[in-house]
């Protein structure tokens, strides 16, 4: 019950934020020159003014901006995200189609980054200023400093063009129809390179945070006490240090869950994955306001729920922080 | 100018030239001994997804590359650029130019099994070409009715004379037929068939996964005997150009149409024996680079200033160093690939002459002020291609040297069209003019006055010339081909004299295709063609 009431309060507090975000994005896009009909004309390579006028009426663009905004918010109240002008179907279904690849890619790369970031962070902290630390920190910096598009392209050149181990792009193999476990394996093989490309950048951040936080906790008094009790070093690290050192990592995952939805435009483009990042980019270029606002809406909901889960995990990791807080 | 950058570009250009030269021979290799092989999947790079796939309501290469294999046009162009019947078997025009009769092919069926008849042509012409299709609505403005005395005759009636040659050169692009029984009820634009097209063509639509791929399979009941050869065509949506090149190399793509790869990758793949990089098969998709002047700026309304700007830019140098063999010097709005209308280079041209440019500006009264500045300009480049971006920087540097600082304002597609063609918020703009086989289709609108505000790629310069208007109108309704050609030569002469828009560079798109493909690039608009005879060798 306590959790439910907390969830309720959180949700109520986030509704004004959500409305402000939506109005902000709506107005921002009004400042961009051109509307979806201009974008469509650009794509078609021409058209006459009468057609353009008719299309504007069709998309409801002949109304004043406050009227358009009012219409949008009123539809949102009825849980209707509107109609996408580039896809010619409801925004909700457009977004739902794009969610699975996005969520798969994101959970895979975040888990990868989290797990290896944790592992290497601990190793680096335990061997601080010796060769494992230097090696891990240098590699981490290199991954962090490399642009993801270059990393992705190089991965394609090495693993797809030369070695031919992995497919160069796409979400699944189009040539043959697979079902069940074979389809899963096929999708997995398509996701290896994008996951690594995206994950290596996150990895560097997690690694640095984990190392710093481990070093801090390792110097606390209770660790000395644990050692004085005669516990071996592995036990000290896993039972006593890790749990406390994990808090900043969990905070970071909560923050990055928000950026992960829209933040993978580059990786999705390089590996031709049908994800939300590319959809958002396309909606901006095509001035498809409904779709863009829909994506913002869904991302905002996701951020709110992830942060909620993070709060719960905090309480689990550190009993001093209660879910009440 | 920045020399290091020029050197690099020069090197790329030279490598490219060598690559192209080596490959020009390739498509000409004799394949006579090989017997066509049935089967195989052909994978095509699809760079920019469109909102729909029906070429009867949208004239653009992004639609033809898919819809052109599924739906068919009345007429297409043959290897020599001459009209050849597809769904129409023959045609005839009356001497007054007001009636054109098409005899339609018999025994053709739609992919859903229904017969193709003149009712489909009548419906498509009156409801799609005349009302919705971009450029079609201008072409068919004076079409009053399509009569269908029997199921295989369609008689087009025009209020004003329609030159038969114009119609036959426009119909390959603007003459795709849709099935009446699928479109007669409801809003045509919102018809779900637009995203799952049904046609009479060699390939049947199978599936469209937005953001991923489109699949079409062989039409077993296709009307041409023994066609098509391929089992399947797959269009893969890949928005990143470099990734598309990598997929070509990994063998996941067979064909990248319409210069969809980066200039450096085109040069690199051109040297690779597995691929052919060539302009062949794109002659019908010629374009020119433009420099558009806004006459609302006092300085630019002076003809001496426009000429001075043209004289100040060294076009041959730009082409040689930045575009290489991908482009050649242009002579006006009608490109040299247009054998029927090209008037030659004997019209006013503006060779590079910096001294003359400075003299013209001084004569016009725009003397250098403080810091050598005469006046400054806002340049809006279109975001369509790498070449426009390079060209706009080159304009900026060239004009800077004669005391005209240029501020480049970059926008995305929608923003560019809005600011230039609707809000007129530019001083000079640069983009592409697409030439579509006849000047009346999409060329003369760049010069004819009275274009509604907001219509992209039309005369929005605030410029009007009654002589030019008259030449354009006369040519559009002139039925005698020789007289029409003469009128268009006069038109080029007039607009090159007045220079409301300068078109100094000609370009043709580049095709990148696997060396295993046979019967490819064999018509001037091959990327848009039906590919009924295309096959892959083992």
UniProtKB/TrEMBL annotation, chain A:
GO CC terms: plasma membrane
Entry-linked InterPro entries: MetI-like, MetI-like_sf
Compartments where found: Cell membrane
Gene3D superfamilies cross-referenced by the UniProt entry: MetI-like (1.10.3720.10)
CDD domains in the record: TM_PBP2
GO BP terms in the entry: transmembrane transport
Domain of life per record: Bacteria
Primary location group: membrane
Protein keywords: Cell membrane, Membrane, Transmembrane, Transmembrane helix, Transport
Transmembrane segments: 12-32, 103-123, 135-163, 187-207, 245-271, 291-314
Family under the similarity heading: Belongs to the binding-protein-dependent transport system permease family.
Protein's UniProt name: ABC transporter permease
Every ABC transmembrane type-1 domain range: 99-314
Membrane topology, from the record: Multi-pass membrane protein
From TrEMBL, chain B:
Predominant subcellular localization, coarse grouping: periplasm
GO cellular component: ATP-binding cassette (ABC) transporter complex; outer membrane-bounded periplasmic space
Subcellular location: Periplasm
Record GO terms (molecular function): peptide transmembrane transporter activity
InterPro entries listed in its UniProt record: Peptide/Ni-bd, SBP_5, SBP_5_dom
Family annotation (Pfam families): SBP_bac_5
Alphabetically ordered keywords of this record: Signal
One GO term (biological process): peptide transport
CDD domains: PBP2_NikA_DppA_OppA_like_13
Domain Solute-binding protein family span(s) in chain numbering: 83-450
Key word Signal present: yes
Family listed: Belongs to the bacterial solute-binding protein 5 family.
Protein name: Peptide ABC transporter substrate-binding protein
The organism of origin for this protein: Bradyrhizobium jicamae
């Amino acid at each position: 019950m306590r959790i439910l009431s907390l969830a309720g309060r959180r949700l109520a507090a986030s509704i004004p934020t959500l409305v402000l975000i939506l109005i902000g994005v709506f107005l921002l896009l009004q400042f961009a020159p051109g509307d979806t009909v201009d974008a469509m004309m650009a794509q078609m390579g021409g058209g006459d003014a009468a057609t353009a006028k008719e299309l504007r009426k069709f998309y409801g663009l002949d109304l004043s901006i406050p009227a358009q905004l009012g219409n949008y918010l009123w539809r949102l109240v009825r849980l209707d995200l509107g109609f996408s002008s580039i896809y010619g179907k409801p925004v909700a279904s457009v977004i739902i189609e794009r969610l699975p690849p996005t969520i798969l890619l994101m959970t895979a790369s975040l888990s990868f980054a989290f797990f290896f970031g944790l592992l290497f962070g601990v190793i680096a902290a335990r061997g601080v200023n010796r060769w494992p630390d230097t090696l891990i920190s240098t590699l981490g910096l290199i991954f962090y400093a490399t642009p993801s598009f270059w990393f992705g392209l190089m991965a394609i050149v090495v693993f797809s063009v030369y070695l031919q181990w992995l497919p160069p792009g796409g979400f699944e193999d189009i040539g043959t129809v697979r079902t069940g476990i074979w389809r899963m394996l096929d999708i997995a093989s398509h996701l290896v390179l994008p996951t690594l490309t995206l994950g290596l950048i996150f990895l560097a951040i997690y690694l640095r945070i984990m190392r710093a936080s481990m070093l801090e906790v390792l110097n606390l008094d209770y660790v000395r006490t644990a050692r004085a009790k005669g516990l071996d070093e592995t036990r000290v690290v896993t039972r006593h240090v890790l749990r406390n050192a994990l808090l900043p990592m969990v905070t970071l995952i909560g923050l990055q869950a928000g950026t992960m939805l829209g933040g993978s435009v580059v990786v999705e483009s390089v590996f031709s994955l049908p994800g939300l990042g590319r959809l958002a980019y396309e909606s901006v270029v095509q001035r498809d306001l409904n779709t863009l606002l829909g994506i913002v809406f869904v991302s905002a909901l996701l951020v709110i729920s992830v942060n909620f889960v993070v709060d719960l995990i905090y309480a689990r990791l550190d009993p001093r922080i209660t879910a009440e807080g | 100018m920045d020399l290091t950058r020029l050197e690099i570009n020069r090197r790329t250009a030279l490598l490219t030239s060598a690559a192209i030269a080596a490959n020009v021979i390739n498509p000409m290799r004799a394949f006579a001994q090989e017997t066509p092989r049935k089967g195989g999947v052909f994978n095509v790079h699809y760079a920019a997804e469109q909102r729909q796939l029906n070429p009867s309501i949208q004239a653009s290469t992004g639609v033809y590359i898919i819809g052109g294999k599924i739906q068919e046009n009345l007429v297409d162009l043959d290897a020599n650029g001459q009209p050849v019947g597809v769904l129409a078997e023959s045609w005839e025009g009356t001497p007054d130019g007001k009636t054109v009769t098409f005899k339609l092919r018999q025994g053709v069926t739609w992919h859903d099994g229904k017969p193709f008849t003149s009712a489909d042509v009548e419906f498509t012409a009156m409801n799609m070409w005349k009302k919705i299709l971009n450029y079609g609505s201008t072409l068919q403005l004076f079409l009053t009715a399509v009569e269908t005395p029997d199921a295989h005759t369609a008689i087009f009636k025009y209020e004003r004379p329609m030159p038969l040659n114009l119609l036959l050169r426009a119909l390959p692009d603007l003459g795709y037929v849709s099935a009446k029984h699928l479109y007669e009820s409801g809003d045509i634009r919102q018809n779900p068939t637009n995203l799952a097209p049904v046609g009479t063509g060699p390939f049947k639509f199978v599936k469209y996964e937005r953001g991923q791929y489109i699949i079409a399979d062989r039409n077993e009941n296709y009307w041409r005997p023994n066609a098509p050869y391929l089992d399947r065509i797959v269009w893969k949506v890949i928005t990143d150009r470099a990734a598309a090149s990598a997929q070509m190399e990994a063998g996941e793509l067979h064909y990248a149409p319409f210069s969809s790869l980066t200039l450096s990758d085109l040069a690199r793949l051109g040297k690779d024996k597995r691929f052919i990089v060539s302009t062949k098969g794109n002659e019908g998709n010629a374009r020119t680079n433009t420099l558009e002047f806004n006459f609302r700026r006092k300085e630019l309304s002076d003809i001496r200033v426009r000429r001075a700007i043209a004289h100040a830019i060294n076009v041959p140098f730009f082409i040689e160093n930045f575009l290489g063999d991908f482009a050649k010097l242009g002579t006006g709005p009608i490109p040299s690939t247009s054998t029927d209308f090209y008037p030659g280079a004997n019209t006013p041209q503006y060779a590079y002459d910096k001294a003359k440019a400075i003299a013209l500006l001084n004569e016009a009264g725009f003397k250098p002020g403080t810091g050598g500045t005469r006046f400054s300009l806002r340049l809006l480049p279109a975001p369509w291609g790498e070449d426009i971006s390079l060209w706009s920087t080159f304009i900026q540097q060239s004009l800077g040297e004669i005391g005209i600082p240029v501020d480049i304002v970059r926008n995305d597609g929608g923003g560019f069209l809005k600011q230039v063609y609707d809000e007129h918020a530019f001083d000079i703009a640069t983009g592409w003019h697409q030439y579509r086989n006849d000047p009346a289709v999409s060329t003369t609108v760049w010069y004819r006055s009275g274009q509604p505000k907001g219509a992209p790629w039309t005369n929005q310069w605030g410029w009007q010339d009654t002589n030019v208007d008259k030449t354009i109108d006369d040519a559009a309704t002139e039925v005698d081909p020789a007289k029409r050609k003469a009128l268009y030569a006069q038109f080029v002469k007039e607009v090159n004299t007045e220079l409301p828009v300068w078109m100094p560079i000609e370009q043709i798109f580049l095709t990148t295709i696997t060396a295993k493909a046979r019967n490819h690039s064999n018509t001037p608009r091959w990327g848009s063609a039906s590919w009924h005879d295309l096959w892959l060798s083992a």
